[in-house]
Backbone:
């Protein structure tokens, strides 16, 4: 492990420290701050010549600040002669802009992939991309992990029976099917029509949910409008209880107020891919750590071992 070095920007320092604790290594010494005018200032204080370097930095809000920190850090490491640089991006920002769904709009996910590559990334390690095809935007290896086993371990602990896994939209069907297969449970899909990027209208539920304990699964929660509408629809369909297992808790805008107001949502379970601010903490929000998952992936990548067992 003497050639392994792990660094972190300011996006999720606590997760990086947890990963280092699992691996039994010390977090690399780097200055990541700001000049007086606001420009990002980076100085790598450790020797990284010939090292296998991992930079842990989700591009969560403030997205542009965190993305720029990652790019500048990788440039500094590349110029310091690091042998290989892996961008560990637990939450990949701009992932929702993965296609031209309207005239004259960018494909920003592809732009970010290009920026990471040009900045010096040799490979990318990420988790629960909003769209799996984003892996194809990169011309470098991408290891795409899933948080499914982290959630399953939690639900096995609380020993919930008579489950139905619910996809809140068509895009999350594959994820919901994966959960349902592991639980040996039923699958339901909520058909909805999106009126605007912030507002949706639930149409109807496909699948048997009456009298069951529903778990809504998705890759991210932003403002929470889709989740709350799904919860209300499931309760109208006579579900016994409704929980949500969502990988990335962006929780922006009125998300916390909506969760507080929705008493039918028993629990929202998210991961620590994005740090949860103190003002966003809520008794019904449970945070699960992905440190062990990422640490195992980093260890296997460093030792040139297969990580396919972590993909499912």
Residues:
């Amino acid at each position: 492990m003497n050639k392994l070095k792990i660094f972190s920007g300011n996006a999720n320092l606590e997760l990086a420290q947890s990963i280092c604790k699992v691996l039994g290594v010390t977090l690399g010494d780097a200055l990541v701050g700001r000049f007086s005018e606001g420009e990002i200032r980076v100085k790598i204080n450790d020797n990284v010549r010939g090292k296998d370097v991992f930079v842990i930095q989700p591009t969560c809000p403030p997205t542009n600040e965190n993305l720029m920190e990652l790019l500048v850090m990788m440039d500094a490491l590349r110029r310091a002669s690091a042998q290989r640089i892996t961008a560990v991006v637990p939450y990949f920002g701009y992932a929702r802009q993965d296609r031209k769904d309207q005239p004259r709009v960018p494909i920003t996910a592809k732009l970010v992939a290009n920026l990471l590559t040009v900045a010096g990334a040799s490979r990318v390690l990420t988790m629960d991309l909003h769209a799996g095809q984003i892996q194809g935007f990169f011309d470098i290896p991408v290891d795409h992990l899933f948080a499914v086993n982290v959630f399953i371990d939690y639900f096995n602990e609380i020993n919930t029976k008579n489950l139905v896994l619910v996809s809140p939209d068509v895009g999350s069907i594959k994820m919901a099917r994966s959960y349902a297969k592991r639980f040996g449970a039923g699958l339901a899909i909520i058909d909805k029509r999106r009126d605007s990027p912030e507002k949706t209208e639930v149409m109807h539920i496909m699948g048997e949910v009456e009298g069951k304990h529903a778990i809504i699964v998705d890759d991210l929660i932003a403002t929470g409008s889709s989740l709350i509408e799904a919860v209300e629809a499931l309760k109208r369909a006579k579900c016994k209880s409704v929980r949500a297992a969502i990988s990335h808790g962006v929780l922006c805008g009125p998300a916390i107020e909506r969760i507080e107001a929705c008493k039918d949502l028993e629990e929202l379970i998210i991961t620590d891919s994005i740090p949860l601010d103190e003002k966003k903490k809520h008794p019904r929000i449970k945070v699960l750590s992905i440190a062990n998952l990422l640490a195992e992936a980093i260890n296997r990548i460093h030792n040139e071992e297969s990580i396919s067992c972590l993909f499912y």
